[in-house]
Amino acid sequence: MPDFLLARRRGHTALIAALLAVGVSACGGSSGGGGTVNGAGGGDNASSTSDTSASSAARGGTLVVGAEQEPDCADWIAVCAGNIWGSYMMQTTTLPTAFDTREVDGSWTLVPSEVLAGEPEVVVRGGKQTITYEIDPRAVWSDGEPISSADFAYTATQIRDGEGIFDKTGYDQIEKVETPDEKTAVVTMRSTYGPWRALFGGSYSLLPAHLLRGKDRNALMKDGYSFSGGPWKIEKWQKGNSVTLVPNDRYWGAKPKLDKVVFQFIPDTAAAFQALKSGQVQSLYPSPQVDAISQIKNGIPNTRVEVDAATGNLEALWMNNARFPFDSKAVREAVAYAVDREAIVERLYGPLGVEDPAQSFVTPLVGAFAGSDFSRFSADPAKVDEIMEADGWARDGSGIWAKDGRAAEFSIVSLAGNKRRELTEQILQQQLGEAGFKMTIANTTPAELFGKVAPSGDYQLGLWTLIDQYPEPSLSATFSSRSIPTEANGNSGINFMRARIPGVDELLGTVDRSTDQAQRRAASLEADALIAADVPSLPIATVPNVLMTSDSIGGPVSINPSEGPWWNLEEWTRG
Amino acid sequence: MASLLRFSLRRFAWSVPVVLLASFLLFWAVRATFDPVAKLRQGRDAGAVQREIERLGLDRSVPEQYLLWMKGFVTGDWGTSTRTGGSVSSLIGQALWPTVQLMFWGVLLAAFVALAIGVYTAVRQYSAGDYVLSTLAYVGISLPAFWFGLMLIQVLAVWPVQSLGWSEPPFYFVGLHTPGQSGFNLDYLRHLALPLATLTVTLTASWSRFARTAMLDTLSSDYVRTARAKGVPPLAVVMRHALRNALAPFVTIVALDTGVLFGGLIVTEQIYSIPGMGRLFLQSLQAGDVFVLVPWMFVVALAVVFFNLLADVSYALLDPKVKLR
Amino acid sequence: MSAQLETPPVAAERARSQWRVVARRFRRHRLAMAGTVVLLLLIVCCFGAGVIAPYPQNEQDLLVGAVGPGTDGHLLGTDNLGRDFLSELLYAGRISLSIGLAVAVLSTLIGTLLGALAGYLGGWVEELIMRIVDLFLIVPAIAVLALALRGLGSSPLTIILVLSAIGWTSIARVARSQVVSLREKEFIEASKLLGASTTRIIVRHMLPNLAGVIAVNVSLAVAAAIIVESTLSFLGFGVQPPQSSWGQLLSDAAGLLGTDQTYLLIFPGVFILVTVLCVNFIGDGLRDAFDQRARRR
């Protein structure tokens, strides 16, 4: 069953029912707990390294990838924005962005892409910010038309002024886009905007003005489009069955080595793994559900497994700070000491080599802005008793804490049908039960949870994943008191826990508005520490991302936590 | 022939009010379960929600909305999916074809196998073959289909590769064609085998029981005994007399079950990644896509009505004792 | 008058001997008897799980995790949370069997009553009831089930109610046609002439004659409900944790196909298969036992 995620963007709140089981992103390479795991316990599978030497790389060949989900459509800024699978398999591979997410000195950073001739010039004057993008003269669309400043202007206005746009964060700050010449775009922001690098990148891409202007963009794009400004173009989208990519001959950067990549849609996990085992597909990007991890642990012959722990996916225990019993800081703190997060992470992701709980609400994708202040919480029954007793609670006859005649009973809500979360809930139920808290499970559907239950605050405890989609901090969307959903803000915030922590709003405001990276970072760390001191909720795990590829696939196979597992598909080979 | 036509029309006329009532109840149930603009509500454009509510008339009463929807449905405007933004009629149209293929082959296969088993086990009642086939039929009826499907994949597609070292599996289990292939060819058959087996195991098992009972009934009837007494050869008795009479109830049950099968392919399509009606339903249900769910159910209900009609007609045609009224 | 008054005792006598014949025929049906014994055993084990199960329900051992059958006193191994799988299966069986039995009883009750009413009263009542039956027949059951469970939430109780609400139609059709044929029989006519009330005629005369059909239907409904419940679980509409059923265990383990933990997929499947098989054998035995023409098997 698909599972739904909550994605947060900076500053604003976007609730995506992003149709993917788990993850948005993961981190390739050496930093932060990444690495290659060969199925432990399988025994018979040969170990191999993740980077097969390039010398043996052959050109040509077809790659078939098993995709858990089919994108609903391909209009990446409206109806089908935020669809992780669509974005990974089609958007990233076919549409250009101004900035790419790349690893620089061990942390993920937005860097100028091949579309740009270099780092844009940023000027702050009179409280306004102008960004001057110089476009690479070689950059062209697949029909030969140059990628131009008009494309910047078109994309910006489509997102800022369009109807049914998924998320206008940042773009709503754009005052104007000037096009002094074909290859220069000057964007003026109404005020300073810290995460400006995420514009024309992040989760959106540049769109070809010469093909779309004055036409129905949604109609032209939703069923797939033939234009491209990336290394690949969509050859065919056979609904329900597969998407086929072929190289874009006009691409000015490194050309794809494979002749063809087919993404075949296999919704059933069991069938997907069997398809990999029987060679019908050569790559899978499974959500790290219990069954997938068991399959990996068991070993799949002739298959490498990339595991990245430093992703943008944070699974947390969300407490409703406005509802009994979590309106009491003592209870929140006691619960944080009652939950054995190490044991949960070990049980869920241990076989992938992931063992450390998340210690901040800022994900490793935005690692430069993250503290580790939650590390003070580990399972400690004595501490639980101490805190609860100090707050005036006493255990009743059945061993449950009670105060003023009210027992510490509450229910947890998560997404029904998600095996991993159901398992986590059952572990939590047992751990909290031992610590004197009675927890019942009441799961619901994604639409219900994110459309109604969480925004209206009609829950006590919740378990879901929050996603950072690109390496810009986004704490204000979840922790600023201005992000509490209310009538006034159109129920748009995702501070579903109703946290109001003194001092945090100001610090997060600095993170959002300053253009000084060092200042932003310091403010973010300070906010992180204040949050951990108040324990408005409890981070549990960074959900790892997993990529499985057959040994016949060569090239630098790795997962980009923002752009997905196929961010460098053009370098993959098949031998 | 004229009487047959009249008969069919009469039956059809009867089902119209039932179908209409069913569609209204379904419409109401779906609207009561899902918020049609839930997806928009997750975005932040409050104006968009209001505009959509007005455009779709969601602020009106359910009966009014139903009439509005019906009007659109009849005139060919089936609305737009909230999930894909595409037209509902084309979504359902695309999903129908794979399902029709599965059903066609599945029913054909199951009916023939079941009939063969039924005739054999009835004629050779209490033989070893009867016991074995009857037991198998019981097992077939008792299997959860998805479990059986998964086991088939493991045994018939994965093991040959993993344990026997075959370079590719004898049967495929993803979709109905390898991407890039189409048409009726070996590739198609290799994709079709496992889903068909999964789909037909329960059908074949229960139909074979039915065929056996029907055959036993006719074999013990007076006219068969008379035919035997007259010295008609045993094979001719079975084929010409017994089978012909057992065929009417058998075909009826096949037609009735086929109608139900239409919506019941969900599990098979899910396991074998076949983009048919079953998967469309699951996806729409998960996304709360009311604009697909209602027409989906309507189309399936129409299919059931059609096959019920077919059952009646075939019974009337096959059973000489029934006169058309 | 006096002769007519003597009729009921005689009829009762005949009914009793008829039951004896049925019971004797059923006992001679070997598969049905075997099915009965195994099913009873399963029912006792599952509902007595509190006493019989080797471990308490939901007792986790995260450090152990999943171990194979026969390890450390776990006859059928443990699941991913280190819970004894045999115990989990027995506790899950409670829910599965409860759903199966409750749905069978409830749907048969509703179906028989409405069917008998339709058949006996005829006229607009019959028309109304049979149109409702038609209504249920043409809407796709699995879709309505999924929709209803999504709307109402999947607890064992809602599953039972929804399955019964959909399952009563088939028995209603059969009951109606049986009653229609009975309606014309002499002894019913006689009772009517005697001034017996409608209720009395239905309860005393019609229902006993429907016993065979009812008994067979109950068994088929148990089988169908257990299978449908497992399918619903696979599609994500089954009972929610911490409760579990065989179908839920089965669907939980679906993705483990081909791993060392395939046993987690095999055992619940076998439990379902065996239970449904037993129930079907019993149904077959009952059908033969009640069949006037009394064919073996």
UniProtKB/TrEMBL annotation, chain A:
Domain of life according to the entry: Bacteria
Protein name: ABC transporter substrate-binding protein
InterPro entries, alphabetized: SBP_5, SBP_5_dom
Hydrolase as UniProt keyword: no
Pfam families reported for this sequence: SBP_bac_5 (PF00496)
This protein's UniProt keywords: Signal
Signal peptide: 1-26
UniProt domain Solute-binding protein family: residue ranges: 126-474
Automatic annotation (TrEMBL), chain B:
UniProt cross-references to InterPro entries, sorted A to Z: BPD_transp_1_N (IPR045621), MetI-like (IPR000515), MetI-like_sf (IPR035906)
Entry's localization field: Cell membrane
Membrane topology: Multi-pass membrane protein
Transmembrane residue ranges: 12-30, 102-123, 135-159, 188-207, 247-272, 292-318
Protein keywords: Cell membrane, Membrane, Transmembrane, Transmembrane helix, Transport
CDD domains given in the database record: TM_PBP2 (cd06261)
Domain ABC transmembrane type-1: 96-311
Main localization (coarse): membrane
PANTHER family with a match to the protein in the record: DIPEPTIDE TRANSPORT SYSTEM PERMEASE PROTEIN DPPB-RELATED
Family recorded in the similarity comment: Belongs to the binding-protein-dependent transport system permease family.
Protein name as it appears in the record: ABC transporter permease
Lineage, opening ranks: Bacteria, Bacillati, Actinomycetota, Thermoleophilia, Solirubrobacterales
From TrEMBL, chain C:
Pfam families to which the protein is assigned, alphabetical: BPD_transp_1, OppC_N
UniProt KW keywords: Cell membrane, Membrane, Transmembrane, Transmembrane helix, Transport
Cell location: Cell membrane
Record PROSITE patterns: ABC_TM1 (PS50928)
Membrane topology (UniProt): Multi-pass membrane protein
InterPro entries assigned: BP-dependent_transpt_permease (IPR050366), MetI-like (IPR000515), MetI-like_sf (IPR035906), OppC_N (IPR025966)
Positions of transmembrane segments: 31-53, 95-121, 128-149, 155-175, 210-228, 263-283
Residues in ABC transmembrane type-1 domain copies: 97-283
Main location: membrane
PANTHER family recorded: D,D-DIPEPTIDE TRANSPORT SYSTEM PERMEASE PROTEIN DDPC-RELATED, OLIGOPEPTIDE TRANSPORT SYSTEM PERMEASE PROTEIN APPC
Stated family: Belongs to the binding-protein-dependent transport system permease family.
Protein name per UniProt: ABC transporter permease
Source species taxonomy: Bacteria, Bacillati, Actinomycetota, Thermoleophilia, Solirubrobacterales
